[in-house]
Design goal:
Blueprint: E1 24-26, E2 30-32, E3 38-41, H1 44-52, E4 57-60, E5 65-67, E6 70-72, E7 76-80, E8 89-92, E9 95-97, E10 106-108, E11 114-118, E12 121-124, E13 141-143, E14 147-149, E15 154-158, E16 161-163, E17 169-171, E18 174-178, E19 181-184, E20 189-191, E21 194-198, E22 201-204, E23 208-213, E24 221-225, E25 228-229, E26 246-251, E27 257-261, E28 264-265, E29 290-294, H2 324-327
Parallel strand pairs: 3-4, 4-7, 5-8, 6-10, 7-11, 8-12, 10-14, 11-15, 12-16, 14-17, 15-18, 16-19, 17-20, 18-21, 19-22, 20-23, 21-24, 22-25, 23-26, 24-27, 25-28, 27-29
Antiparallel strand pairs: 1-2, 9-13
Pathway: Glycan metabolism; pectin degradation; 2-dehydro-3-deoxy-D-gluconate from pectin: step 1/5
GO molecular function, one term: pectinesterase activity
Protein name: pectinesterase
């Protein structure tokens, strides 16, 4: 099996105290050149208060672990103070119903809420010990999502790490993930909304399926482009993460849309690409949902071995999925986060 995918350690470079362009913080001067209504928080209590308040930009102190379950119910920017350095961490230990937002580390909710998250690590620390000795595993209960994007809300995730053992990233609204890392195990990128991931690292922690999507609601779909799919690094990689043990997607229900473009697949990916394992008897109906790929590469991609009974690539209009603009119907202003008022 290929070695675990490791993101470049940001500490290898010299830290630059720069946030959002000209916004800076120093011990002597405090915040300078930052958008109006910016707040700097150094504890979990301060973060919870800031999210409940009216600050437009919430800056997190580098190297601090903010323990708790946090909810953003209005438009704002949530960012680490350094573009390189020891990123701040939002963390909780929550083993519960993986289909509930109640135990997620960060929930973004509210009609028309628009949140930009940058230079942060978000994790759920509930591990896989509850599954040990279970055969088959009970995947209805386990580690809750690191990030939950609720219906009606938007999230733009940049330079961020999302870690959990189960259901890491749940999107029921719309989300754009860029230059980030997403780790999880078994059906861990999921939802009913619209999700576009690009230039990112998708790192399974164990065998099973990565994406399971319900496209019967609000034209839901997921696109993963220009990324890599390779094993999580120790100590997160399970022993069952071996060559051919991971599938890109499986049907949650018959209506499912999962598109993969220009992505490199390590040998842990089964060259069939798609799993026929349904939920309560569901299957991929090519008239209602699609599994499709274009310009894949790596040891995990062998064109002759792709499961053609599940694959719809020959009939897909990939122009609908090749960019954020196309995928979100040219409604992309939210991807840069809420409008900021500068001094």
């Amino acid at each position: 099996m290929s070695k675990g995918v490791q993101m470049k350690d940001p500490r290898e470079a010299s830290p630059r105290p720069v946030l959002l362009g000209r916004c800076q913080r120093s011990a002597a001067q405090g915040l300078e050149g930052c958008p109006k209504n910016t707040i700097y928080v150094q504890s979990a209590d301060e973060l919870a208060s800031a999210l409940a308040g009216d600050s437009t930009v919430v800056i997190l102190k580098s190297g601090v672990k903010y323990r708790g379950r946090f909810r953003a119910k209005r438009s704002l920017v949530l960012a680490g103070e350094l573009e390189v350095g020891a990123v701040p961490v939002l963390a909780t230990f929550a083993c519960g119903n993986v289909e509930s937002d109640g135990t997620s580390t960060l929930v973004i909710e509210g009609e028309n809420t628009n949140v930009l998250v940058k230079d942060v690590q978000i994790q759920n620390e509930c591990d896989d010990n509850y599954q040990r000795g279970r055969d088959p595993p009970d995947f209805s209960y386990g580690s809750s999502p690191a990030l939950w994007v609720a219906t009606g809300s938007s999230a733009s995730i940049m330079d961020t790490q999302l870690y959990s053992w189960r259901s890491t990233l749940a999107v029921h609204g719309r989300a754009n993930v860029f230059r980030s890392e997403v780790q999880g195990w078994y059906d861990w990128i999921w939802g009913t909304g619209r999700l576009f991931i690009s230039d990112s690292q998708i790192a399974p922690r164990g065998k099973g399926n990565i994406v399971t999507w319900d496209s019967s609601v609000s034209n839901g779909a997921v696109v993963i482009k220009g990324s890599t799919v390779g094993p999580a690094a120790d100590p997160f990689a399970r022993k069952d993460l071996v060559a051919g043990s991971v599938y890109l997607a499986r049907p949650w229900i018959s209506d499912t849309t999962s598109i993969w473009i220009s992505t490199k697949l390590f040998d842990i990916v089964n060259p069939a690409l798609w799993s026929a394992q349904g939920y309560r008897g569901s299957f991929v109906d090519k008239q209602r949902g699609v599994f499709g790929s274009k310009s894949l590469s790596g040891q995990g991609y062998v064109a002759a071995k792709v499961d053609k009974k599940l694959d719809s690539s020959d009939t897909i209009d990939f122009s609908k999925y090749h960019s954020e603009e196309a995928f979100f119907d040219n409604d992309v202003d939210w991807i840069d986060g809420p409008k900021l008022e500068w001094p």
